[in-house]
Design brief:
globular, Aspartate Aminotransferase, domain 1, alpha/beta, 3 domains, 3-stranded antiparallel β-sheet
Length: about 475
C-alpha cells in the first residue's frame, strides 16, 4: 500500500500575512482544495495543553451533563425513560451500523427482516396493520398520517373535507401538522372532568369534516372514557379518527386503539419502545393505519415474498416518498430489540407499571400541591401550586428552578394550557419506589418553602454552572459567544 506523505508546513513571511501553508502555493491548493484567498491567515487560537489536562477538562464537562443514567426525569408527556444498554451495544455492532442504504436488497436481508417484523409488531399492538417506519419523529408522523388522509379523501372525490377537530388539551404539534397538510383546525372543548366532550364534537361535525385528532390517554393523564362514542360520531359524519400516540406507553399491551375506533396513529418509539429521544437527534415516529388507508402510505414498504425473501415495494396510490431512505434504522433496531425481548406479556407490564408509578407519585404529591383532576390517572398527572403559595409569590417556574438545584430535572411546566400554572409529571415504569419517594420528598420541601415565602425559590438554581437567567431576555437577546464575557 502506498502512503500519502504529509506535506511540510512553512510560515508565510509576506508583509501583513501570518499563516501556515504547505510549501509551495500549488501544493497548498492541491491539498486544501481551496482558493488561495480562502486559506487561513493566522493559526487558530487554540490553547496549548498537556494530554492529562485535556482529559480532565472533558471529563469535568461530561460530569456537568444531566442524563437519565445519573438523574431522574419526571418529564410529563415527553417520557424520558431508560434505554437498555444491551440495545445500545447491539446497535453499535458494525454488522448493523456499517450498512449503507444503497446496498442491494439481497445484501441486507437481515435489516429488511428487522423492519418487516417491527412493522408487524406495531400493527399487532395497535390493531392497525398498515405501518410505515419512515417518519423521523412524532410530529413528522402526524404530518405523514394527515397526508395519507388527504390522499384517501381526494381519491374519493371528497376534497372539500378539509376541517380537523382537535381538543383544547392537545399537543401543539397537532394543529401545526394540520396546517402544514392543508387542513383547517377547529377546537373542541374539554368538559369539567378534563375529557373531550362528545357533545361539543357532535356540534362541530359537518360536511367539511375530514377527521378528528385526539390524544388518548390525553395530556392530563386521563383516559378518554368516551373515545368509542367520539369515534362513532366522526365516522358517521364521514371522517377519520387520528390518535396522537405520544401517551401509548400507558396502554400498550392493554388496549388496542383500533378496537375503540381509531383509524390512524403515530408512535413515539422513544416513549413506548425505549429508544433514544428524538428532538435534535435521530428519532422515529412510525404511523399505523387501517387496511383501508394503507395504500396511501409513503413509499417504499418492506414486504415478504412467499419464498421468504424481503424486498421493497411501492404503491401507485402512495403520496410519494417521505424521506431519502428507510427512517433511522438503528433506532428502529433498538425498538425491535425492546419488543422482542419483552413480548406481549412484557409490553403489558410496561403499561401497568407506568400507571402504578404515576398514581403512587400522584398520591404522595397531593398532600402538598393541588391536583386538579385527583382521581386514578394513567401514566402522568397534573399538579399546580396552591393559592397560598401563589399569594407568597411562588410560581411554577420557581418550582422548576428549585428542583434543578435539588438534583432533579423539572417536570413539564405550563402545559397543558387548560390548567393554569401546570406541573405535569410522568415517572415512567422504569423508576424505583425509592426514587419516587425521594422526588416526592423534594416536592414536599419546595411546598414548605413556598408556603413560608422562602427567597431561595426565586434565586435557584444556585449550584449549577448557569444560574437563574432572565428567560424573556435570553430569548430576545441571546449571548451565544463564549468569549463575550456575559
Amino acid at each position: 500500500m502506498n502512503l500519502i506523505p504529509v506535506p511540510l508546513l512553512s510560515e508565510d513571511s509576506r508583509p501583513g500575512r501570518r499563516c501556515f501553508r504547505v510549501k509551495g502555493a500549488d501544493r497548498a491548493l492541491a491539498v486544501s482544495g481551496l482558493p488561495a484567498e480562502e486559506l487561513r491567515v493566522a493559526p487558530p487560537a487554540l490553547p496549548e495543553t498537556g494530554e492529562l489536562d485535556l482529559l480532565r477538562h472533558f471529563t469535568r464537562l461530561s460530569q456537568k451533563n444531566f442524563g437519565i443514567s445519573t438523574n431522574f426525569y419526571p418529564l410529563g408527556s415527553c417520557t424520558m425513560k431508560y434505554n437498555p444498554v444491551v440495545h445500545e451495544a447491539i446497535a453499535a455492532q458494525t454488522a448493523w451500523s456499517g450498512l449503507h442504504p444503497w446496498q442491494n436488497e439481497a445484501d441486507v436481508q437481515g435489516a429488511l427482516r428487522v423492519m418487516h417484523e417491527l412493522a408487524h409488531d406495531l400493527g399487532v399492538l395497535t390493531g392497525l396493520p398498515g405501518v410505515t417506519l419512515h417518519p423521523a419523529a412524532g410530529a413528522h408522523g402526524e404530518l405523514s398520517a394527515l397526508m395519507v388522509l388527504r390522499g384517501w379523501l381526494d381519491a374519493r372525490g371528497e376534497s372539500h373535507r378539509r376541517t380537523i377537530l382537535i381538543p383544547d388539551s392537545a399537543h401543539g404539534t397537532n394543529p401545526a401538522s394540520c396546517t402544514l397538510a392543508g387542513f383547517k383546525v377547529v377546537t373542541v372543548h374539554s368538559d369539567e372532568r378534563g375529557l373531550c366532550d362528545p357533545e361539543d364534537v357532535k356540534a362541530h361535525l359537518g360536511p367539511d369534516t375530514a377527521g378528528l385528532m385526539i390524544t388518548n390517554p390525553n395530556t392530563l393523564g386521563l383516559f378518554e372514557e368516551n373515545i368509542a362514542e367520539i369515534c362513532r360520531l366522526v365516522h358517521e359524519a364521514g371522517g377519520k379518527v387520528y390518535m396522537d400516540g405520544a401517551n401509548f406507553n400507558a396502554i400498550v399491551g392493554v388496549a388496542r386503539p383500533a378496537d375503540f375506533g381509531v383509524d390512524m396513529m403515530h408512535l413515539n418509539l422513544h416513549k413506548t419502545m425505549s429508544t433514544p429521544h428524538g428532538g435534535g437527534g435521530p428519532g422515529a415516529g412510525p404511523i399505523c393505519v387501517t387496511e383501508e388507508l394503507a395504500p396511501w402510505l409513503p413509499n417504499p414498504r418492506v414486504v415478504r415474498d412467499e419464498d421468504g425473501i424481503f424486498r421493497l415495494e411501492e404503491s401507485a396510490q402512495a403520496f410519494g416518498r417521505l424521506r431519502g431512505f428507510h427512517g433511522n434504522f438503528l433506532v428502529l433496531l433498538r425498538a425491535w430489540c425492546y419488543v422482542r425481548r419483552l413480548g406481549a406479556e412484557g409490553m403489558r407490564r410496561v403499561a401497568e407499571n407506568a400507571v402504578l408509578n404515576a398514581n403512587y407519585l400522584r398520591v404522595l404529591v397531593r398532600d402538598h400541591w393541588r391536583v386538579p383532576f385527583d382521581r386514578v390517572c394513567m401514566h402522568e398527572f397534573v399538579a399546580r401550586p396552591t393559592r397560598s403559595m401563589r399569594d407568597k409569590g411562588a410560581h411554577t417556574m420557581d418550582v422548576a428552578k428549585r428542583l434543578i438545584e435539588l438534583g432533579y430535572h423539572p417536570p413539564t411546566v405550563y402545559f397543558p394550557l387548560v390548567v393554569n400554572e401546570a406541573i405535569m409529571a410522568e415517572p415512567t415504569e422504569t423508576e424505583s419506589k425509592e426514587t419516587l419517594d425521594a422526588f416526592a420528598a423534594a416536592m414536599a420541601q419546595i411546598a414548605r418553602e413556598a408556603e413560608a415565602g422562602d427567597p431561595c425559590l426565586h434565586e435557584a438554581p444556585r449550584n449549577t454552572p448557569v444560574g437563574r437567567v432572565d428567560e424573556a431576555r435570553a430569548v430576545k437577546d441571546p449571548r451565544l459567544c463564549w468569549q463575550c464575557g456575559s
